[in-house]
């Protein structure tokens, strides 16, 4: 049997009985998540798992490298910006969290260039993160450049969030806060950006 169907059956047998009330209330009253997460599509970095959250708690948008594009309303198909607009203007979340991570293939491609087999969309998408790369000092070894870039992309996304006028207004009014994190896939440890650097979360 398909692995996903087996997983669904486990969910119905084990989780549904204990979470049924919660799902039914969420269906009846709608979702009111307080946190919007911008995460990477990477299969190892599930925001709900990392933050120990349940259904209804996190409004999540995931894309390659957890990049927030700058505010622009041209003719492009702005999936991430649409999710931000819904989360901030309709759901009125109280917090936006940018969740980057170690061993990010998207960040590696920012540093090394996108694979030739993925040039249609990945290349222009990762171009958005060029300022993150420019923020890294010269003279570091390759692994350190990648590690620094993982953090710089989180900072760039946090900064780009403020280019959305309704996000800036909400932050200025104290209705919304922006936080940045980085998750270590190999050690399961979370770091939080404290305004200057990334520090371990105890
Ligand atoms: Zn990633």
UniProtKB/TrEMBL annotation:
Its EC number is 4.2.1.1. It comes from the Bacteria. It catalyses: hydrogencarbonate + H(+) = CO2 + H2O. It holds the Pfam family Pro_CA. Binds 1 zinc ion per subunit. One of its GO terms (molecular function) is carbonate dehydratase activity. The keyword Zinc applies. InterPro entries: Beta_CA_cladeB, Carbonic_anhydrase, Carbonic_anhydrase_CS, Carbonic_anhydrase_sf. Gene3D superfamilies: Carbonic anhydrase. Belongs to the beta-class carbonic anhydrase family. This is carbonic anhydrase. It comes from Lutibaculum baratangense AMV1.
């Amino acid at each position: 049997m398909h692995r996903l169907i087996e997983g669904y059956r486990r969910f119905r047998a084990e989780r549904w009985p204990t979470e049924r009330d919660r799902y039914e209330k969420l269906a009846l009253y709608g979702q009111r998540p307080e946190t919007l997460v911008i995460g990477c599509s990477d299969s190892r970095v599930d925001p709900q798992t990392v933050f120990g959250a349940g259904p209804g708690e996190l409004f999540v948008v995931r894309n390659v490298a957890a990049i927030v594009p700058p505010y622009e309303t041209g003719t492009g198909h702005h999936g991430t910006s649409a999710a931000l607009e819904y989360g901030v203007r309709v759901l009125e979340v109280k917090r936006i969290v940018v969740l980057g991570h170690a061993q990010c293939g998207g960040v590696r491609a920012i540093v090394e260039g996108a694979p030739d087999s993925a040039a249609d969309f990945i290349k222009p998408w990762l171009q958005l993160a060029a300022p993150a790369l420019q923020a890294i000092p010269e003279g570091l070894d390759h692994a350190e450049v990648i590690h620094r870039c993982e953090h710089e992309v989180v900072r760039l996304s946090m900064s780009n969030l403020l280019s959305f006028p309704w996000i800036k207004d909400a932050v200025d009014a104290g209705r919304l806060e922006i936080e940045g994190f980085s998750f270590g896939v190999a050690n399961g440890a979370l770091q939080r950006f404290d305004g200057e650097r990334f520090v371990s979360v105890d």
